Batch of 4 targets.
Target 1
Amino acid sequence: MSDDLKRGLEGVLVAESELSYIDGDAGELVYCGYSIEDLAREASYEEVVYLLWHGELPDAEELSDFESWMAGTRSIDDEVLDIVRNLAEADEVPMAALRTVVSALSAYDEDADHDDVTDLDANLRMACRITAKVPTALAAYQRIRNGKEPIEPDEDLDHAENFLYMLNGEVPDEVLAETFDMALVLHADHGLNASTFSAMVTASTLSDLHSAVTSAVGTLAGSLHGGANANVMRMLEEVDESDVGPTEWVENALEEGRRVPGFGHRVYNVKDPRAKILGEKSKSLAEAAGDTKWYDYSVAIEEYITEEKGLAPNVDFYSASTYYQMGIPVDIYTPIFAMSRVAGWIAHVLEQYDDNRLIRPRARYVGPSNLTFPPLEDR
């Protein structure tokens, strides 16, 4: 065994996958052989979920059946809604609330107690329920903590439209629905990122699907992973409230030793392809609304950081202003990330179950040695 230490497992190959491929030098992202640019512009989120879980795009009949099945499983049990209500009224942190709800869904899933945790059919049924119910729970949580009653899901709306409807109480226009659907597609999977890997580690012990997704939610909550998008928007709000322009604000922040969120990536050496697509959407939304302030701030900051630090923006950078212009509250940006990424988490868990080996790395011991155990009275 090699004694080379790879902190953070950087560059270490631990699995083979047919799900997503990233070329960090070329700035390319592929799901199951299809470029993210094509999928973002041509495919719905439901099509991408089907692709990740089945390895191929659905035909018209398969897509219709899948959409109907997803839409028909959106409602959450009254007991789960009670949990959501209690968490919202207790002002629980959104990602912590989501983590609790995902775990609780197991108690009300008829397939959760099946004997073989690797049973593909049972796992696909649970996968569909988890993916469909997370938006319902998240929208209910957001409304309850704002003193409003939850809205029942509408089976006639697609996944993206229905969430915005449950969140805001009105069916979104075509532009908002299309933009949000595209954002869900862009966030659906991204190789062995930290949350996906934590889901795989959990699954590798032959723990169940709900446990694996719960692990992933907990991992995504960190500011170095899913929490970055909310931090980007908070930064833009600080810029807006300051007495200086975005470039000077960033200069001052860097001089103070602050980190500018939304830049750099463990995998990409160039601009994240998802950031390119969301940047275009952010600009379109801004121009349609007649207020390009947030987009202009973002562009100015991107140009400065790229020129001065050689860092390119990642997907979090432009998802911030995109979501903000859609009226989405900042502190549920990361739960929305989870709402999308659950499809990829589940796909990797299914892949792990299909050819499982316990994931068990080792650490190099650097502690003391040859100590003599002292009696209690001598310590």
Target 2
Amino acid sequence: IAHERFGRIMGEPGLTGGIRLSLERSDERSTREVIANVAPVLEKAGFKVAESISQTQLGRALGGHLFILIFTLVVISILMAIVGVLGLSSAMAISVLERTREFAVMRVIGAGGGTIRRSVIGEAVFVGILSAGIALLLSVPLTIVVSEIVGTGSLGPAIGTVLSAAA
């Protein structure tokens, strides 16, 4: 839109939606010099310069806001992991309490303490591996869904999800 038409629509003559410049050198000093030189030229041409910001400054500002969001999500995931461990511990404790008669029968027919211990530990490892496998299968689609919701809610249109094996 021409700046005159945009100014009429917005009710403020001389207003534009924004101008982006591509520079050969994008270091902070060069960017500041270009902004200092371009702003007066735009003012002389009849454009009102409300704000000038470099890509680096914008990146730092977005990075600061994203840090808070990422930190919150990491804390939530740690709390979820703790709840998962407590749930698994509770399930194993209940399983052992419910099987006290079974363990007594095993002792009567000659099973030693090591055999009973291996049985309980084997069950705990099996349940842990099974739950980790299910969690891994569900983590990819859930990560994509959460990424779309959080990304769209905080930054606008989503640009896609990058999954990291290390994470």
Target 3
Amino acid sequence: MVSFLGVLSAVMLFVFAKPLARILSGGGDAVCAPSLMMLSPALLVMGIISSRKGFFQGKSVMTPSALGQLGESLIKVVLGIGLCAVFVKKGIAYGAAGAIAGVTAGAFIQAIVLESFYRRENKIKGTYSTKKALEVFKISVPMTLGAFGFTAVMLLDSLTVPKLLVSVGESFPERLALMGYLTRAMTIYNLPATVISAFTASAVPALARARAEGDRGKSGESSVRVIKLILLAALPCALGMMLFPKELFLLIYSSKSHASLLALYGMIVIIMPYVQTTTAMLQTLGKVWAPIWVTVGAVVLKAILNVVFVKAFGIAGAPFATIAAFSVAVIINTFMLTRLTSLKGAVKVAGKILLCALLSCGGARLIYNTVPSVITLLLCVMLAATLYFALIFIFRCITKSEILGKE
């Protein structure tokens, strides 16, 4: 089924690349059409990637997924930059398409890695039946919708923000530039967000086991552990983005223009992974549709706030709207979790993790202020990471057994 959807999506994206590109540019030229065409083949293997990742996640084995993503990232960078350098001679649009070709190649590499691991497994041979397929479909639809949060946000911003910028008088080149700055911040956001999501995904099956055994105490412990993992990964990344936005933009993009967008995405790097992971937790605990309606409501609120905030604050209004809308989802999801399981100790451990992140990232910022340079920035990042890692053990935010995945 996922392969069928992948093929259908690939064909539609390729065929309708030009009209979609015009929509994404706010009614201007179809400058990103070659990139969309180049991206479409990646959808052909999404069925393999998603189903194999799900298979290994269900067994709490994350090595194949990790190696697959490493392979994808390596090919994406090396091949993407190489093809960009070759095709950019024909124009910027073709250079971008060359870079996107690296993304597509990376997806195929990840599919090959995952499939090779899957074929080594000793699997119980099953038989296909329509009844089984419908059962899987019934479960997978709400789970898929629950994971759609930030993807919906990105799509919403791509479709609405360019048009809203038109209404405040921005010209076509200015709109493209502003969306480029937004994409820069979003790209940096995606790195920690992807790591956090993968990090916490491995903990959710333990919650499913606890619920299946009817052990409310163990269920509560697993829930607190998942929330702890989210905060352990998210808080230092968020504070780093908020305290060093100009420096990170300058280091990565050689420009600090609109770096304030990265500081806003620092907030989002806590909010969105939390919403998406707690949605999966609630569904695991039996609340299948309720968190989805919360996410849908947050997306609708985001769309409304986009209109208000983009007109008031320009391009910064888009992340402001995301923060406001999904903060409501954070509160509602947390409230629903407290009704289903015990979150005893969650507030205390969250406070300790925040303190560790503040000490390490705040200390790095103070050192950087004394001797600002690229070398100092890199040393401060390494120092902050080392200090944070030490502090979370000193304050017992996490134990050795939790890192090793032992119950």
Target 4
Amino acid sequence: MRIAVTGANSSVGQNLLTHIANKAAISANAGVRSKSAFRKLPNSELINPCVINYGDQASLAACFKDVDCVVHLAGILIESKLSNYASANVAATSSVVQAAQKAGVKHLVFISVIGASTASSNSYFKSKGDAESLVTESGIGASVLRTPILIGVGTAGASSLLGAASQAKAKVLGGGNYSMRPLDVDDLTQAILTCCESRSKVAEIYELVGPEPIKYRDLIARTAELLGSKVVISSIPIIMAKIGATLSRLLKGGGITSTVIDVITRDEIVAENADTKLGLDLTPLQATLEKIIRNK
């Protein structure tokens, strides 16, 4: 089986390709925005790096040639002067879908987020919901994986968690009293590969979260304990954080916004975890924390 991966130099992309490099039955075209990003990809004869441009159908078509499945990872949470939700989350997905249709790709895997909805008042969640619709209505068999915060070696979630847990005093949005379902990035990779291998002919949406619900403040304290230390957690009032974010955005033209703060502090709740449907044996949260500490 051969797959194509967009956003291949992201933490999820690197994790996925590392697993693929150890699977003789799978090879991948790894799509990144520039040749300079090639160095972040695993060095393996099973990995074929390629430069893609979401505004250039020819580059996408070349990356998608003769592949069985396209895994679309690219997208943003934090907007900048050069990239916004409309371009990075919606238009880029539209380009990927169109190129996949023209290339005769049989299956799409799209990584979305818990909370994605076309009806959401949050512009990030709405952009992911709009992108999901482009995928599920493409006429191509598809697997949409809605995910929570991802932790694991090399992830931004793990870096942020370790940073907070390593301090004597940590200030956290809202005191960290929101509920999370952290998912090990290795488990997400297994879910992606399962979807690629099954290649359902219909469009399916899975909400895949970690095995244990936990408040963020408790997650920080638990990580600190594993590090052999203690951390005092205090609160950054969310309203004050939003005011500061608005002022910073006006001055810098990008960065954290009220939209992002609402995403970060939203309780991660699902009606049914998709681990059973996907045949996954999820990594216990304790094992994931121990793993990121060993590799920090």
